[in-house]
């Protein structure tokens, strides 16, 4: 791994525009005061529950939103004003787009986006992702369409790859082969990857760094993986798996949220509500009493 910095984030905060033309200050920030650097050649895994801010962070790193507060640099460039041509972002929305579900043959589709310029890498990815060039885009499954997206996005020589849940549709074999390819890209070419996922099986040997996000902040800033054993317990002898760590972190996040709701530090916005929209207490006896029409 190089000492060169691929990504630099300083004092980054971001708030999505609230509906109805309400002022920005009335909305809850999606990201709060993020600070970190990501070294060239590293693979950073973002761990956090739904709504933790992972996708928003990746969108900003990809230059898809104008910064409101703070500074983001990719290889020293402002990604919004001076988008680097060696950056690739792959998110879940592409395969759902009606435009890519038309009756077009995969070979023609890939050629239309420059596949002929990257023949060697394109052919390597076609084998890894088990893609049939004779497929018709409108007649294949979501998982197969996702494979085509990955061939399209990865066939050029990227230096920073931002992945947002794009392996969710892949079968276990194709996902395994893809991860091996991506790891090889970071080792041989010094490419950098930031990856947000909720599937942790088979990932123990993939990342070089992991982080924990909650409510738009880093609970754990990007840290070398495996984590130091002292992080878990003074007498620890074996690093837990990524799956067990993610499960613990997300369970802790939910317990903290419920505790803050009970203490009035935040509004209870999840779970069951009555006809007036008032949250129903979470204990089972009270909950079922509200729906017992025999009394």
From TrEMBL:
Signal peptide: none annotated. Residues 7-240 form the ABC transporter domain. InterPro entries: AAA+_ATPase, ABC_transporter-like_ATP-bd, P-loop_NTPase. Keywords: ATP-binding, Nucleotide-binding. Pfam families: ABC_tran. One of its GO terms (molecular function) is ATP binding. This is ABC transporter domain-containing protein. The lineage of its organism: Eukaryota, Fungi, Dikarya, Basidiomycota, Agaricomycotina.
């Amino acid at each position: 791994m190089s000492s060169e910095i691929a990504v630099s984030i300083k004092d980054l905060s971001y708030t999505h525009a609230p509906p109805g033309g309400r002022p920005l200050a009335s909305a809850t920030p999606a990201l709060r005061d993020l600070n970190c650097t990501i070294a060239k050649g590293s693979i950073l895994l973002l761990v956090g529950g739904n709504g933790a801010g992972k996708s928003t962070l990746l969108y900003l790193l990809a230059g898809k939103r104008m910064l409101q507060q703070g500074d983001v640099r990719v290889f020293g460039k402002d990604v919004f004003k001076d988008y680097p041509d060696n950056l690739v972002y792959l998110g879940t929305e592409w395969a759902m787009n009606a435009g890519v579900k038309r009756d077009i043959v995969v070979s023609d589709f890939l050629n239309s986006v420059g596949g002929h310029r990257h023949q060697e890498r394109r052919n390597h990815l076609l084998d890894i992702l088990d893609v049939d060039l004779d497929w018709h885009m409108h007649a294949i499954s979501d998982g197969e369409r996702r494979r085509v997206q990955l061939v399209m996005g990865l066939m050029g020589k990227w230096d920073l790859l931002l992945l947002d849940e794009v392996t969710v549709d892949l079968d276990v074999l194709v996902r395994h082969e893809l991860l091996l390819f991506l790891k090889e890209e970071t080792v041989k070419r010094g490419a950098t990857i930031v990856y947000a996922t909720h599937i942790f099986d088979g990932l123990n040997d993939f990342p070089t760094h992991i982080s924990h996000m909650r409510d738009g902040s880093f609970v754990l800033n990007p840290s070398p993986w495996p984590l130091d054993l002292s992080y878990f317990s003074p007498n620890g002898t074996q690093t837990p798996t990524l799956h067990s760590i993610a499960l613990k972190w997300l369970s802790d996040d939910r317990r903290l949220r419920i505790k803050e709701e009970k203490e009035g530090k935040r509004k209870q916005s999840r779970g069951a509500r009555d006809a007036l929209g008032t949250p129903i207490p979470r204990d089972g006896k009270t909950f079922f009493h509200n729906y017992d029409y025999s009394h």
